[in-house]
């Protein structure tokens, strides 16, 4: 677990790994995976049919036992209006102004609708929410979201659940360079611990993932592996990665080398 805390809307956490809570084999395995990961923030989608029922009470009991912070999301929302309504319901159910804002614009890739996202973010921030927008690496959209009042950005690595890793390293690097002081959390598309390490090596502040852990053969072991990868990536970024070269460079100096006759 990283020694340098990450601050999100005034809340400091030590872990730079955030986990989703869907699709685990059982609540018990979910709880074990969260403990193994060391994460302090978990995301949960509001299911309107069970928001105030037994399922919601069961989840709250699990969260209280684990001592983690809940980040509700607007998963599945296709319009700004739907996302705003869902966020308002989530605030009532979970008692937090934090919201992971998703406005999906494409059915095949689940790519965010950036126009609807900015519209919803403005409305929710005006309503007192602290918004974590699920976005792309688009610089213009990032500018608009920050102008709207977002103090965190969550660009995707690849389509949700694809496990493809960092599909546009150039774009993610450019986003990091453009917004050096904004917490950036890579969200969606990470399939292996090495993907998470690569994101932290780029200078990203954290990663959020779900499928790669929940659907692993051993979710608990995979959660632990991702935690180690995040710490390794963060440490490597601070240590200073070597610059790639086009040509070889001998690691052993030529000067003083013994030559044969």
Topology overview:
Elements: E1 6-8, E2 11-13, E3 17-20, H1 27-37, E4 41-45, H2 54-66, E5 69-73, H3 80-94, E6 98-101, H4 114-126, E7 130-135, H5 139-148, E8 154-155, H6 169-178, E9 185-187, H7 193-201, E10 206-209, H8 211-214, H9 219-239
Parallel strand pairs: 3-4, 3-10, 4-5, 6-7, 7-8, 9-10
Antiparallel strand pairs: 1-2
Helix pairs in contact: 1-9, 3-4, 4-5, 7-9
Structural class: alpha/beta
* Share of helical residues: 40-55%
Share of residues in strands: 5-15%
User: Can you tell me the residue ranges where pLDDT is under 50 for at least 5 consecutive residues?
Assistant: none
Order of strands across the main sheet:
5-4-3-10-9
Q: Distance between termini? A: 54 Å
- Discrete helix count: 9
| Mean model confidence by pLDDT | 91
Number of strands: 10
Give the overall silhouette.
globular
List keywords for this structure.
single chain, 9 helices, 261 residues, 10 strands, 41% helix
Quick synopsis:
With 261 residues, this protein is an alpha/beta fold. The chain is built from nine helices and ten strands.
How would you describe what is shown here?
By secondary structure, this protein is α/β, with parallel strands linked by helices. The chain is 41% helix and 15% strand. The chain contains nine helices and ten strands. The protein has helices at 27-37, 54-66, 80-94, 114-126, 139-148, 169-178, 193-201, 211-214, 219-239, and strands spanning 6-8, 11-13, 17-20, 41-45, 69-73, 98-101, 130-135, 154-155, 185-187, 206-209. The strands form three sheets. A five-stranded parallel sheet has the order 5-4-3-10-9. A three-stranded parallel sheet has the order 6-7-8. The mean pLDDT is 91.
């Amino acid at each position: 677990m990283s020694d340098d805390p990450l601050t999100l809307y005034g809340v400091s956490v030590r872990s730079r790994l955030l986990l989703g809570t869907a699709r685990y084999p059982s609540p018990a395995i979910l709880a074990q995976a969260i403990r193994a990961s060391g994460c302090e923030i978990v995301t949960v989608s509001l299911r309107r049919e069970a928001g105030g029922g037994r399922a919601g009470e069961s989840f709250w009991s699990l969260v209280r036992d684990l001592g983690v912070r809940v980040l509700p999301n607007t998963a599945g929302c296709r319009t700004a209006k739907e996302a705003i309504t869902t966020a308002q319901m989530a605030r009532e159910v979970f008692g937090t102004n934090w919201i992971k804002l998703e406005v999906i614009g494409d059915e095949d890739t689940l790519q965010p609708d950036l126009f609807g996202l900015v519209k919803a973010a403005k409305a929710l921030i005006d309503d007192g929410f602290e918004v974590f927008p699920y976005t792309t690496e688009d610089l213009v959209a990032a500018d608009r979201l920050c102008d709207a009042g977002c103090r965190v950005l969550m660009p995707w690595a690849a389509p949700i659940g694809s496990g493809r890793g960092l599909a546009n390293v150039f774009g993610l690097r450019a986003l990091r360079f453009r917004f050096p002081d904004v917490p950036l959390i890579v969200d969606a598309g990470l399939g292996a611990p090495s993907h998470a390490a690569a994101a932290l090596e780029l200078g990203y502040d954290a990663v959020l993932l779900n499928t790669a852990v929940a659907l692993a053969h051993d979710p608990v072991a995979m959660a632990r592996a991702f935690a180690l990868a995040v710490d390794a990536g963060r440490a490597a970024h601070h240590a200073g990665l070597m610059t790639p070269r086009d040509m070889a460079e001998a690691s052993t100096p030529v000067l003083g080398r013994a030559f044969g006759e």
